[in-house]
Every structure is written in structure tokens, then in C-alpha cells.
Design brief:
- With 124 residues, the chain is mainly β.
- The protein contains two helices and eight strands, in the order βααβββββββ.
- The chain has a four-stranded antiparallel beta sheet, with no helix packed on it.
- The radius of gyration is 15 Å and the shape is globular.
């Protein structure tokens, strides 16, 4: 089962400051989780109950307004590879998964939604 929550905002805070933008342009990993934009901008969160616990996916607007299409509604079923949402103008996607899952990607790696395996069970 899935729960979906939209959090609106009247803020228009850039996700990247000057230092973060330069770091990303240089190909370096950048911490966006504690920035004002991540904390204050409009977002859409989905919690998907899985076999090993909840997986949370949060889409954060890059600035003014979250231009996203959500494919999940409250109560929907979802599984690995299920397309959850589309961000028309980009943004930040934060995924939180239970400790029973092991990351399959590293900081700074690019992932493609519904294609890249980002975590798997420890015994797999």
C-alpha cells in the first residue's frame, strides 16, 4: 500500500547555492539535503510499504513550484521498477529505504528512474 502527501510552499528557494553549483559542475558530489531549498520548497512524498519495510520517495521542487506528474495515488500498490512520478523541470529526488536493503549505487552516481537498481536485499 502507498500513502502520498503533497506539501505546498510559497517559497522560491534555489536548490543549489553558488558553491554547490560549482561543485556539481566540477563533477563532485554535492550535499543538498540540508539546504534551504530542500527544507522549504514544495514537495511530494510517497511511502510505499514493502516486504522489508517502508520505502520513502520525496520529490523536491528546484525552485518555484513542483512541476511533477505523480503516478501513485493513496492506496495504490507499487513494486520494483514501478514508475512513481515524473519531474518535468527536474528537481531533487530523495529515497529512504529500510536497513534491510543494501545500496547498489554510490554517492555521485547517476541513476535513471525505473531502470537503475538503487538497493537490493542483503541476501540477494
Amino acid at each position: 500500500m502507498t500513502t502520498v502527501q503533497h506539501t505546498g510552499s510559497r517559497r522560491d528557494v534555489a536548490l543549489l547555492g553558488a558553491a554547490e553549483a560549482l561543485s556539481m559542475l566540477a563533477g563532485q558530489p554535492t550535499d543538498l539535503l540540508a539546504g534551504r531549498g530542500t527544507l522549504e520548497n514544495e514537495r511530494l512524498g510517497a511511502v510505499i510499504e514493502g516486504e522489508v519495510g517502508p520505502v520513502t520517495v520525496t520529490l523536491v521542487a528546484p525552485g518555484a513550484g513542483l512541476h511533477a506528474t505523480s503516478y501513485l495515488k493513496p492506496g495504490d500498490s507499487a513494486s520494483a521498477g514501478h514508475k512513481a512520478a515524473f519531474l518535468a523541470e527536474g528537481g531533487l529526488v530523495v529515497v529512504h529505504f529500510p536497513a534491510a536493503l543494501m545500496p547498489q549505487v554510490s554517492v555521485g552516481e547517476r541513476v535513471v528512474g525505473a531502470q537503475t537498481v538503487i538497493a537490493s536485499g542483503a541476501g540477494r
